[in-house]
Amino acid sequence: MPDLDTAIGTAPATPAVEGSAAAAILLMLLDESEAATILKHLDPDEVRLLAKGMFDAANANETQVEQALDRFVARSRTVSALAIGADTRIRTVMNQAVGNVRADNILAAIAPQRSAASLEMLRWMDIDAISGLLASEHPQVGALILSVLVPDIAARAIETLDEGLQADLVLRAAQLTAVPAAAIEDLESVLASANVGGQRVAKQAIGGPSDVAKIMKKMPKSLSERTIRNLKKADRQLAQTIEEEMFIFENLRDLDLRSLGTILRGVDAAQLAVALKGADDEMADLCLSTMSKRAAETIRDEMAEMTMVKRTDVEDAQKSIMQIVRQMAASGEIMIAGAGDDYV
């Protein structure tokens, strides 16, 4: 006769409830209005994740509910009571101490920066509505909007705009480095708020060639190429910088071995050795695997003989190789595929 425990069987252990699953269970335990209030403070991706988790939470058993509650209580113990409503209390004290104007100037320089509600709203808007904003607002405001959007959304929003406006927005967005906090909070008054009375205000870094390059990589090939051509007419150096950011040395990992080998055969061995000196072992092994054993050993020997190599020398060598890559892609010798094959 089999053992009683074996015959009856043992119930499988309930998996631990963590992360969004625990949060979803807690939301299901709250009143609808309370849960909605919490969700209002989250970004779209978090809301979507929790919404999915709430459907799953409907089937949670008693053990999982207890785990979620225990997790919440444990995490709550690490939150200081001083943090609750801290922003409001600090601002009130500062206003009473030095007056509203001085308090605003002081807090603008030292308070933690957060995305303004106006920018958060952009994440919830559909593509057509965003395109409408880009088309109707001043290009500088449009550039600000473009810079804070997720790259693939920005690429789709700009796709339907007039060709001249596309180039203007991309140029302005690429030239952005920092914008006063007042301008971030109020898109309608971005120009007026940029330099209010010459006051020094806290600034939030946005835009620039790197962000624009991410947007360009999400565009269809024909649109990205046309935009780059138009951008070169306005600022050739900036256009070149964006092109460099669109496909960097690390992106060589994304190429098939045949294309990678074709590229590296056109690179000087000494230059490649310097470029790989600044790369990780995996990258070096990948590149050298496309060569003959003798050629790979030669480059490894050169790398081993190097002592300290300047970061600028490594970057220059990598940029030179990427220039070869772009030339070969333009001539059709190799194919460079971006996200979703939008940029090739």
Q: Can you tag this structure with a few keywords?
A:
disordered C terminus, mainly alpha, single chain, 2 strands, two-stranded antiparallel sheet, disordered N terminus, 344 residues, Annexin V, domain 1
Q: What would your notes on this structure say?
A:
With 344 residues, the protein is mainly α. The chain folds into four domains: 58 residues, no CATH class; 29 residues, no CATH class; 127 residues, Annexin V, domain 1 (Orthogonal Bundle), CATH 1.10.220; 95 residues, Annexin V, domain 1 (Orthogonal Bundle), CATH 1.10.220. Helices cover 66% and strands 2% of the residues. A two-stranded antiparallel sheet has the order 1-2. The N terminus and C terminus are likely disordered.
Low-confidence stretches: 1-12, 112-118, 190-204, 338-344
What is the 3D form?
extended
Number of continuous helical runs: 22
Mean pLDDT across every amino acid position: 75
Distance between the termini: 69 Å
How many strands in all?
2
Draw up the topology in text:
Blueprint: H1 4-8, H2 19-29, H3 32-39, H4 44-57, H5 62-76, H6 86-98, H7 100-110, H8 117-122, H9 127-136, H10 139-148, H11 151-159, H12 163-175, E1 178-180, H13 181-185, H14 190-193, E2 203-205, H15 209-218, H16 221-234, H17 236-246, H18 257-264, H19 269-277, H20 281-288, H21 293-305, H22 311-331
Antiparallel strand pairs: 1-2
